[in-house]
Amino acid sequence: MPRTHLLVPPDDPPAGPVASAATGLLSARVVHPKPTQLEEELQLKEALQQEAAHPGEGAGSRSDTEQELPTIVGYQHRIVLRPDASPTVAGASPAVRLPSGLHYTPGNRIPVADALSRLPLDTSDSPDIDDGEDIVALVSAEMSDEPDTLTEERVRQESQSDPVFQRLRDTIATGWPDSARRCAKEIQPYFAVRHELQAREDGVIMRGMDQVVVPSKLRAQYVEQAHLSHDGIVRTKQLVRRLSWWPGQSRDVTEKIRNCQQCQASDKVLSGAVSQAPLQPVPFPDRPWSKLGLDVVGPLPDVPASARFAVTLTDYHSKWVEVGLTPTVTTADIIRILATVWSREGYPDELVTDNGTQFTSREFQSYLKQRGIRHLRSSVYWPRGNGAVERFNRSLKSWFIAAVNQSEVPFQQYLQLQLARYRSSPHCSTGRAPSELLHGRIMRLQLPVFAQQPPPDPIVRLRVEKQQRRNKRAYDARHATRRTRISVGDWVRPKKQVHGSKRRQSRQLQLTSACSTGYVSPDRAGAAT
Length: 529
Fold this sequence. Notes:
The protein is α+β, with helices and mostly antiparallel strands. It has 15 helices and 19 strands.
């Protein structure tokens, strides 16, 4: 705000201001609005010079003979008197002297409000600056409860309470009519798949063995959960169809994705280029984790410094993907990320890369040779030679765009969620989820899994139980264990695992339940709960 000094006549009561002086703030003063001593001195000097140039003028002026000497009103400055009784601003450079006859009065003793400080006169050559009044807007966001998590129990409850499903269960139990026209209007969309529908005892309706028929209240949430990774229409449909079904499912998924803002921002619809030569498909490997594709993506914009580059790995058989983030992409960085993956999945037979210096270095070649991995390189300037990993890289880039545009989930966590959904979604080439082909089971994420999982191996169970019995006999013999004499209702002092000379038992607690085995160690009798 401009600094203002007033000159008022010494009337009692005051008749009004004689003159006012204002100094507009320059750009440097706007950036640093805190007044300095020198600024106050210059402002006071300007006020005095204007008064000297126009004596006797102002709102409260009178004739020269009647005009009394005015009083200068200071704003955030100090006045001192030199030994020669000539008043000057403290520390002024150059010195600012008050004209003879003027005297200084502190602002707190001036009854006239400093209103002109908000309406300065346009007398300076400084550029006009709009001081604009600060406006504070209170924005209230309507907080809505998070939707209930999709669980098997919630699907059962909605299936039991849905009136359409009640009619559908009755029709399945009594038998379907000969034509859809003879069915009730609300169950006519189910007539085409009537031979595949079956009603379970808990009220859930299944289509086949793996697909649950979703009630109308949960369909929008099913689509929302399946599209959390913002995949395309085909992949999202495959994920939803893998575990669920309802009439109009394809239409609901298509409408959801077409109206998705993040999908529109990432512009996933790319025009296909005309091939110059017939496509040469890559032979499909016989088993998972036999042939892998390796590539580097980056540098990526608007991401954390630790994630400027992404090292991607794709299994040609199962389509399982691995992503490692790194600030640099030297050969040592590539080997470090690969070593982490090898510790979980083991070594592949073949590794396909491009001709980057990280992959053609002697260090990388020696690393693969020591582990018996055959290194295949694609043609120079022809990334399609490693098409499996290049196709995944396109999806990965769209994930990075979505991660930057959203702020609900941290960057690293968002990437892990996208990877989990990608690995659990059926791939368009294999028709199976990568987790099924590589690990032999369906990953359970947001959508309930009603499909039958691989049965446990009875030989493994028997072997584990046999080993547990052997360990129990050895432990009981070594520690001389006995059956506990503690019963429900007794007061016990559980032993605490502490170090040093601190108390090793807690306060007394009443026993409310007994151990299933009924055995405790003599020195741990108080720990039975």
